[in-house]
Amino acid sequence: MSATRGALEVLPSHPSGEPLSLLLLEDSPLDAELIIAQFEEGGLSIQAERVDSQADFTRALARCRFDIILSDYNIPGFDGLSALAAARLACPDTPFLFVSGALGEERAIELLKRGATDYVLKDRLERLVPCVKRALREAEGELRRKRTEEALRKSEERYELALRATSDAIWDWDMETDTLLWHGGAVGQVFGYSPEELGPDVEGWSRLIHPEDRERVLASLERARESREEHWQGEYRFLFKDGTWAHVVDRGYIVRDAGGKPVRMVGAMQDISERKRAEEERQRLLEEAHQRAEFEQQLIGIVSHDLRNPLSAILTAAALMLRREDTQPWQAKTAARIVSAAERAHRMIRDLLDFTQARMGGGIPVRPVPCDAHELTQHVVDEARTAHPERDIQVSRGGDGQGHWDSDRIAQVLANILGNALKYSPEGSPVWVESLGVGAHVVLRVRNAGEPIAPELLPRLFEPLTRGSGRLERSDRSIGLGLYIVRQLVLAHGGTVEVESTAAEGTTFTVRLPRMPPAASVETSGAEPRGG
């Protein structure tokens, strides 16, 4: 390993005129030069500092002057998770990207959950500059949001201090003589007028209200006078002496005589222009974030939906190849692989469509029809036995299995849970499946032996992008939406799903379904057919 460290060459400046400050944790000088070259090719000017040890990385973080941090995942004597934790502690707002030679899908998801901004594989360095640009844009947006919230907080703090120091424009209106007095110097400090310039009556104040607000404000003031209320408040635009319009909030207390007649009103007018601008900016940022999230979910749904047709064609073609009598063994093997991969992609697309429906539509609609839970359970088990002839799946039933459910969706629930039980249990162990009618409900249970689910994972097991800890072949991996969709489907039927997992008893998933789902979750007859 080379001992060369320190600043690397500065590339030509980008349009902002200032090079990006980069901290690079990388023990390979050659890889570091390749990374720097990507910035040059992408037109980004950087000032990079490379370190290759924990001590040097910690010292560099202490300065916290970097625009972006890149890190290899495997550093001798130091690991990527520790580097990420140290960076998040020292520089929480600085984007942190992993640039690694090998990074599994599950590990990458875990790193993102722990605070990494993104990751790029070293054999895909052409993605580096676009990822960095996106990370910088997101960091800038987050910084703007924090600044906006900080500005709003400071504005509210100033407002409280202003009230304590009576720096509002204080006024006193004698309603019997229609005389308006302005007290103190705040009216001049805040709005630029002397009390004489505002005049001795309400007309001098009202003529400075924005024409679009004047009628509304005067009408609300008159309603307060005629009512029995003691307080009045109005928000409107008021003309500063320098010709600009300010947003003000005006509050008054109405003093009445023994007969309830208003005789005096004392109030304070406060300039809230800065707070108003901060609120508008915050609202704009929130709307942008909401629109971006909604667009991303819509995009997932659209792309997933449009992929179903070509996948169906692939499945059909591969199935025809398998049925041909003159198919060569190598051709049959290839077609079988195509069918397996296409079926897995089809399941992923189904999960993505259900995920999008659940997130954007407030839940997955169901179409309940009369059916028998015992028969549904047996059908799912028969399919699982066909797919896994080497496994022992034991079935038991009891009580009345009749009810109203969406049979396809309940089969999807059972197939997902049973599939997980087969994946995460020892190959020689049995899996137990039970359907039981109990009063107004039907209970479905799936239990398997083997290593229990980690206790810290149990509370998050039904959240999206959460997987069990068992080791699976690459072809068996999912995108981590299965149990989330299971829970959404059970909820749509008005039921519950729970999991218990111990070393002694194994892992048990329990689904409890009412025999009749709530009407609110039932899909209407005019809804678009599923999978259309």
Structural commentary:
- The protein has 532 residues and is of the alpha/beta class.
- Helix content is 45%, strand content 22%.
- The chain contains 14 helices and 20 strands.
- The chain has helices at residues 29-41, 54-63, 80-90, 105-113, 128-164, 186-191, 195-198, 202-206, 211-226, 273-323, 329-361, 373-387, 407-423, 482-492; strands at 6-7, 20-25, 46-51, 68-71, 74-75, 78-79, 96-100, 118-121, 169-174, 179-183, 231-239, 245-256, 262-271, 369-372, 393-398, 402-405, 431-438, 441-448, 496-502, 506-514.
- The strands form five sheets. The protein has a six-stranded mixed β-sheet with strand order 1-3-2-4-7-8, with helices on both faces. It has a five-stranded antiparallel β-sheet with strand order 10-9-13-12-11, with helices on both faces. Strands 15-17-18-20-19 form a five-stranded mixed β-sheet.
- Helix 4 links the parallel strand 7 (96-100) and strand 8.
- Helix 5 packs antiparallel against helix 10, helix 11 (329-361) packs across helix 14 and helix 13 (407-423) runs antiparallel to helix 14.
- The longest helix has 51 residues, at 273-323.
- It is extended, with a radius of gyration of 34 Å.
- 26% of the residues are buried.
- Residues 1-15, 471-479 and 524-532 have low confidence and may be disordered.
